[in-house]
């Protein structure tokens, strides 16, 4: 990795009661890198993804974004969160706002853009993800795939340094998975730093710079997609790949 | 006496409309006060600051579980009589203001809980998405949670408003000349018409309350957030 990594996770631990969900996690993500978190359910990959903008708290260790330690609460945290885009499994578009207002809310209220500036930028982003014709509709009027692309545009509107994707296609009907993955692939090609939790192996192969494999809250192995899929080093990874690839 | 004769006797002798108008005014001003105070309490109860949450919870439990009549008596006999705290030099206005304040303080506890029940109808993901784009607690509450929560709490807020409208009769304890006070003097001086008297006041409150119910039902359908 060149110079200082953009996202640094150092010695992070987290418990849910007695359950140790993250065990001494160390992870560095360089600028422009696309990291795919893989692992069986309950392995802690979603939790890890959510700790990076502190939607989940951590017990100890530290997380740095662009050299700054993620603060615990308050204004500083909000400021840092604005630099970290997040796309959720269930889209989470603001249900009472139009598509356009969903995308402009952050730029206007956090970045302080004027309505017209924010709307002009939002329309460009919506065009980029292919839903500009839906700008004045409400989220419930859009298909799942369209909603998720709006969610990506909403995150991009903040001009984030890194984007987190927490199983972005898991709640989609199969025919809509590709349109979202295509958007993500083009984002990766543009050089966006991305941390993606997904079960889409085809996408992982195609877009990832590095696969990070977790099981039981630990990082078991990290390698390039070619190496990971053709020659996994650990027994756990071989077992996992055996279960998902042979059907 | 026939039905219409009884009715005209009462209406000729007493200004029934004026008395009910007092209840309507009490309802209106107390509702505004209760809504503002209740919203602040609801914000406190969902805030990340433990001491604010505790204060909000204490308020709700204390006020909600005290009978309104006792609060009204406390305000008049305690605050006004003992501390001589006068809100207006006009005797009637003073009591009227006292009644509004007590009604607002009391119903704010219910408004708070109604809004909180509305907040519970908003999925957690909405707040997470708002925080993820860098909005702090107050902007998240203001732009994302409350607009959706209010739509979800229209029905319980309507119920609180209906209770408030009927509870304005407790203002009689504070010597406010309103409908139930008038009813008492009617019963005293026209006890032969007691059934008609009850009928008139029951109908009066039906006329005030039914539109509130219809309006909130309509509004909760109209404004529902589609998911």
UniProtKB/TrEMBL annotation, chain B:
Membrane topology of this protein: Multi-pass membrane protein
GO molecular function, one term: transmembrane transporter activity
Membrane-spanning parts: 20-44, 65-83, 95-115, 193-219
Primary localisation category: membrane
GO CC terms in record: ATP-binding cassette (ABC) transporter complex
GO biological process entries: amino acid transport
Record-linked CDD domains: TM_PBP2
Domain ABC transmembrane type-1: 20-216
Source organism, top-level taxon: Bacteria
Protein name: Amino acid ABC transporter permease
Organism (species): Rothia terrae
Classification via Gene3D superfamilies: MetI-like
Pfam families recorded: BPD_transp_1
Subcellular location: Cell membrane
Keyword line: Amino-acid transport, Cell membrane, Membrane, Transmembrane, Transmembrane helix, Transport
Family, as annotated: Belongs to the binding-protein-dependent transport system permease family. HisMQ subfamily.
Record's keyword annotation contains Cell membrane: yes
């Amino acid at each position: 990795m060149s110079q200082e990594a953009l996202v640094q996770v150092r010695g992070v631990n987290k418990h849910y009661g007695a359950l140790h969900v993250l065990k001494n996690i160390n992870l560095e993500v360089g600028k422009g890198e696309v990291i795919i978190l893989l692992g069986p359910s309950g392995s802690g990959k979603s939790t890890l993804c959510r700790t990076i903008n502190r939607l989940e708290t951590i017990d100890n260790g530290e997380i740095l974004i662009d050299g700054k330690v993620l603060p615990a609460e308050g204004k500083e945290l909000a400021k840092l969160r604005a630099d970290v885009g997040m796309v959720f499994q269930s889209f989470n578009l603001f249900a009472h706002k139009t598509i356009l207002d969903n995308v402009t809310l952050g730029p206007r209220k956090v970045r302080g853009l004027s309505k017209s500036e924010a709307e002009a930028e939002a329309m460009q982003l919506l065009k980029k993800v292919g839903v500009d014709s839906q700008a004045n509709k409400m989220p419930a009027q859009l298909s799942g795939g369209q909603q998720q692309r709006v969610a990506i545009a909403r995150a991009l509107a903040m001009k984030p340094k890194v984007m987190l994707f927490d199983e972005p296609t898991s709640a989609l009907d199969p025919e809509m998975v590709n349109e979202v993955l295509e958007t993500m692939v083009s984002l990766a090609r543009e050089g966006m730093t991305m941390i993606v939790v997904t079960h889409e192996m085809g996408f992982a192969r195609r877009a990832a710079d590095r696969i990070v494999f977790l099981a039981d809250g630990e990082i078991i192995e990290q390698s390039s997609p070619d190496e990971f899929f053709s020659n996994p080093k650990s027994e756990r990874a071989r077992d996992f790949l055996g279960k998902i690839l042979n059907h | 006496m026939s039905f219409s004769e009884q009715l005209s006797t009462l209406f000729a002798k007493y200004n029934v409309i004026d008395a009910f108008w007092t209840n309507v005014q009490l309802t209106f001003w107390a509702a505004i006060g209760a809504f503002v105070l209740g919203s602040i309490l609801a914000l406190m109860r969902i805030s990340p600051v433990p001491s604010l949450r505790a204060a909000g919870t204490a308020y709700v439990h204390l006020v909600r579980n005290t009978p309104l009549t006792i609060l009204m008596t406390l305000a008049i006999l305690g605050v006004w009589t003992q501390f001589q705290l006068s809100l207006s030099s006009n005797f009637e206005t003073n009591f009227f203001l006292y009644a509004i304040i007590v009604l607002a303080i009391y119903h704010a506890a219910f408004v708070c809980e109604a809004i909180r029940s509305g907040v519970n109808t908003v999925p957690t993901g909405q707040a997470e998405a708002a925080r993820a784009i860098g909005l702090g607690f107050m902007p998240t509450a203001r732009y994302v949670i409350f607009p959706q929560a209010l739509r979800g709490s229209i029905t319980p807020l309507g119920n609180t408003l209906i209770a408030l409208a009927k509870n304005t009769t407790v203002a009689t304890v504070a010597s406010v000349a309103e409908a139930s006070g008038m009813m008492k003097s009617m019963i005293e001086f026209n006890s032969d018409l007691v059934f008609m008297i009850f009928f008139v006041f029951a109908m009066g409150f039906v006329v005030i309350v039914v539109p509130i119910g219809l309006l909130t039902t309509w509004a909760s359908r109209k404004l529902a957030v589609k998911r």
